[in-house]
């Protein structure tokens, strides 16, 4: 198994991986939606606001993760949002998702990124360090349909600071249908 940064020529394969994985777990419409999101994130986001990594087995992409910038007051916090992540159905439940997320966190920490957030199931994300956060502590960029899914962690010391300013996600995620 190899973990590495994505390459531009892999974008179609990454989109297909998200379509397949989310169609399998949540239905065709969700698969299409998340595939389009992954493609938009990878093609429309400035390179300084994007980190994406793949897991490969025998040269094939079997899992993929995308982090994009979450901006607060200019220059105040170095924060990224994990969304989406997927492991191909036949490879799920073997620890690959957790390893890929941890690989991503380590790479982001090396780049000086302090805070990471995501929006999902705490039962899974708590395995890789995320905790539930109230919007009184950190504002989500859009209105949340499932506020319990707003999660975060500090990659340096575990403490999430209180951030009073609004937060802003990248353009591809700036749509209520994802929140
Ligand atoms: C979620 C996902 C990325 C996890 O990757 P994975 O390689 O299957 O997970 P791991 O093997 O590293 O970890 C498995 C653990 O996470 C839990 N888990 C896996 N998927 C979960 C999910 N969707 N919700 C809650 N818990 C989940 C398992 O119960 C297991 O816990 P256990 O070891 O205590 O039994 C992967 O299953 C996937 O792509 N699922 C479909 C798409 C998706 O739901 N993406 C994330 C949206 S929040």
Automatic annotation (TrEMBL):
Domain (N-acetyltransferase): residue spans on this chain: 1-156
Molecular-function GO term, any one: acyltransferase activity, transferring groups other than amino-acyl groups
Keywords from the UniProt entry: Transferase
Entry-linked SUPFAM superfamilies: Acyl-CoA N-acyltransferases (Nat) (SSF55729)
Listed Gene3D superfamilies: 3.40.630.30
Entry keyword Transferase: yes
Name of the protein described by the UniProt record: Putative N-acetyltransferase YhbS
């Amino acid at each position: 198994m190899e973990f590495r940064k994505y390459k531009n020529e892999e974008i179609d394969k990454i989109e297909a991986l998200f379509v397949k994985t989310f169609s399998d777990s949540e239905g065709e419409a969700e698969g299409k939606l998340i595939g389009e999101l992954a493609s938009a994130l990878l093609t429309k986001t400035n390179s300084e606001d994007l980190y994406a990594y793949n897991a490969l087995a025998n040269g094939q992409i079997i899992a993929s993760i995308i982090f994009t910038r979450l901006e607060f007051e200019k220059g105040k916090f170095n924060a990224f949002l994990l969304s989406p992540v997927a492991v191909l159905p036949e490879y799920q439940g073997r620890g690959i998702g957790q390893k890929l997320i941890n690989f991503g966190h380590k790479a982001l920490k090396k780049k000086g990124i302090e805070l990471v957030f995501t929006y999902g199931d705490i039962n899974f994300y708590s395995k890789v360090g995320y905790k539930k956060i109230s919007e009184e502590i950190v504002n989500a960029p859009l209105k949340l349909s499932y506020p319990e899914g707003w999660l975060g962690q500090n990659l340096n010391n575990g403490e999430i600071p209180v951030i009073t300013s609004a937060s802003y996600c990248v353009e591809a995620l700036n749509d209520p249908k994802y929140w």
